[in-house]
């Protein structure tokens, strides 16, 4: 395989995640994208997964749904000469550290916002992770077919709430029942909204930005208003700045309706023009690994446990950072320096055609794992050691006390906890006062997976007592005095033996800061 071919293949890759608050329309938009990619059959599977009104306790059923979820958590398709990988970042009960870590494996993000609701909490959290990574973020203001907030308000919310410059690529002409179309300054045209009419219809603009020739929008006050706003933005708004977009300091904003399939393809086309191909990755050996390096490398960003007790295996999701994956290849697992043959692998090709079945930098592969991999592991080929930077840990917000139901089974309890914590599935803390175990997670699902796996993989029934949400803040051991612990906080140590307080609420944290003004408290990401 020549360099040229690898170069070509890599430059076609666009790997991104869609971030949003539940119900903003992520699933609907994903389905539209899959339809453009010709993955008609697959589109239903996204819905199937979503319709999960399952009882939370019923893991077998969840596993059945998850059978779909495993493959739909990475969706790959071809569109207009590009190979697109969409990584799912679940919301709701599915929310976990995985959701955050998935954002470590993408090259850009699409932020979907419900135009009636504006920016919601989950969007904000996910946005902050993308911002921290400095990746490009594209915004889709969804549900334009309904009455929503004023477009001006939505755009300024991006700046005021998220602190990112906004650059509207198009502007709605009305909304809800009076939605007429999009004034598309990027493509220099008006896109008409014509429900029930096949295909997309455009009216080209002249050099002044007016619609050329006679048209149905002439003299329409809704169009005039939209045009006026767009003119105002062109004069007084932000300048289009590709460098800022590349660093995540400016977000191109698109309007549309996923449900009405309006503006989605316009968005996708513009997105593909602007979104980056896979970039370089920094290593702890102080090297920059280029995606077109012939040597293969990648890192594990997510491990999905198989909930079926008959099949203990798990899937380790690997983002390929360089080179080309070949089935059966031997790689070095950096953490242990042992060689592992990659023979049992899933590729996430939705439209499988044998001749295109190849994975290169930018793609995701799923390794069937029997316990070799941990989150954050690097794998590579070649003699030179490669260790990608550690994946960040996220501050847990939910906590549970945990103990073994059967005191006679302490051994399996400890073994299970140790392994699951190592795998990165959950955080473990030990109280200073009594040495009791406390688990921390960013989402409820992590606890449920933990409980289920303890039972099924380690034959250990656990007792879990919810403690609700807490604020975790680390303290410099030098500054720690155990007397600082009070009824409003719990002093614990993490698995690195670093001390931290779990504060009951912000009030308790503020009270502490007032009492110990010289003590520095830090959060993780
Ligand atoms: P997710 O939770 O972000 O994946 O949201 P879904 O895609 O499941 O959408 C949530 C709800 O909003 C569903 O009932 C969708 O049919 C609806 N929805 C999504 N996009 C639009 C849209 O553009 N217009 C309207 N009116 N409803 C939409």
UniProtKB/TrEMBL annotation:
InterPro entries: EF-G-like_DII, EFG_III/V, G_TR_CS, P-loop_NTPase, PrfC, RF3_C, RF3_dom_3_sf, RF3_GTP-bd. HAMAP family: Rel_fac_3. GO terms for molecular function: GTP binding; GTPase activity; translation release factor activity, codon nonspecific; translation release factor activity, codon specific. Residues 11-279 form the Tr-type G domain. It comes from Fructilactobacillus sanfranciscensis. Belongs to the TRAFAC class translation factor GTPase superfamily. Classic translation factor GTPase family. PrfC subfamily. This is Peptide chain release factor 3. It comes from the Bacteria. One of its GO terms (cellular component) is cytosol. Gene3D superfamilies: P-loop containing nucleotide triphosphate hydrolases, Peptide chain release factor 3, domain III, Translation factors. GO terms for biological process: regulation of translational termination. It is found in: Cytoplasm. It holds the Pfam family RF3_C. GTP binds at residues 20-27, 88-92, 142-145. Keywords: Cytoplasm, GTP-binding, Nucleotide-binding, Protein biosynthesis. Increases the formation of ribosomal termination complexes and stimulates activities of RF-1 and RF-2. It binds guanine nucleotides and has strong preference for UGA stop codons. It may interact directly with the ribosome. The stimulation of RF-1 and RF-2 is significantly reduced by GTP and GDP, but not by GMP.
């Amino acid at each position: 395989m020549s360099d040229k071919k690898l170069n070509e293949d890599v430059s076609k890759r666009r790997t991104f995640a869609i971030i949003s608050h539940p119900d903003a329309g992520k699933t609907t938009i994903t389905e539209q994208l899959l339809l453009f990619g010709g993955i008609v059959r697959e589109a239903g599977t996204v819905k199937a997964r979503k319709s999960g009104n399952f009882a939370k306790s019923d893991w077998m059923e969840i596993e059945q749904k998850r059978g779909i979820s495993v493959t739909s958590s990475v969706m790959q398709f071809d569109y207009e000469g590009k190979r697109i990988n969409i990584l799912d970042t679940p919301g709701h009960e599915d929310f976990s550290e995985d959701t955050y870590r998935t954002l470590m494996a993408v090259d850009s993000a699409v932020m979907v916002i419900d135009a009636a609701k504006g920016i919601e909490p989950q969007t904000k959290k996910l946005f902050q992770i993308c911002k921290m990574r400095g990746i490009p973020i594209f915004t889709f203001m969804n549900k334009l077919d309904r009455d929503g907030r004023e477009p001006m308000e939505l755009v300024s919310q991006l700046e005021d709430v998220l602190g990112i410059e906004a650059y509207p690529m198009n502007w709605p002409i009305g909304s809800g029942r009076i939605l007429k179309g999009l004034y598309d300054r990027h493509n220099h045209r008006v896109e008409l909204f014509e429900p029930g009419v096949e295909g997309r219809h455009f009216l080209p603009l002249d050099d002044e930005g007016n619609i050329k020739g006679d048209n149905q929008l002439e003299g329409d006050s809704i169009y005039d208003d939209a045009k006026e706003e767009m003119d105002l933005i062109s004069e007084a708004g932000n300048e289009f700045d590709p460098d800022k977009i590349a660093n995540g300091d400016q977000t191109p904003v698109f309007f549309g309706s996923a449900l009405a399939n309006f503006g989605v393809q316009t968005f996708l086309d513009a997105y593909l023009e602007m979104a980056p191909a896979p970039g370089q990755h920094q290593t702890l050996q102080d090297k920059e690994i280029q995606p077109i390096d012939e040597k293969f490398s990648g890192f594990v960003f997510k491990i999905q446990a198989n909930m079926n007790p008959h099949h203990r295996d798990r899937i380790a999701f690997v983002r390929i950072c360089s080179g080309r994956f070949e089935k059966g290849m031997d790689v070095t697992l950096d953490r242990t320096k042992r060689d592992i043959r990659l023979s049992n692998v899933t590729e996430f090709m939705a439209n499988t055609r044998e001749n295109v079945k190849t994975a290169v930098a930018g793609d995701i592969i799923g390794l069937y794992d029997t316990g070799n991999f941990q989150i954050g592991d690097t794998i590579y080929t070649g003699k030179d050691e490669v260790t990608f930077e550690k994946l960040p840990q996220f501050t847990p917000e939910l906590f549970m006390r945990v103990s073994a139901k059967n005191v006679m089974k302490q051994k399996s309890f400890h073994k299970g906890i140790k392994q699951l914590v190592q795998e990165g599935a959950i955080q473990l803390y030990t109280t200073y006062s009594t040495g009791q175990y406390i688990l921390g997670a960013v989402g409820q699902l992590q606890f449920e997976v933990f409980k289920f796996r303890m039972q099924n993989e380690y034959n250990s029934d656990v007792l879990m007592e919810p403690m609700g949400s807490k604020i975790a803040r680390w303290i410099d051991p030098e500054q720690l005095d155990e007397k600082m612990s009070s009824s409003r906080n719990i002093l614990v140590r993490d698995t690195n033996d670093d001390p931290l307080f779990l504060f009951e609420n912000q009030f308790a944290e503020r009270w502490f800061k007032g009492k110990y003004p010289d003590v520095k408290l830090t959060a993780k990401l």
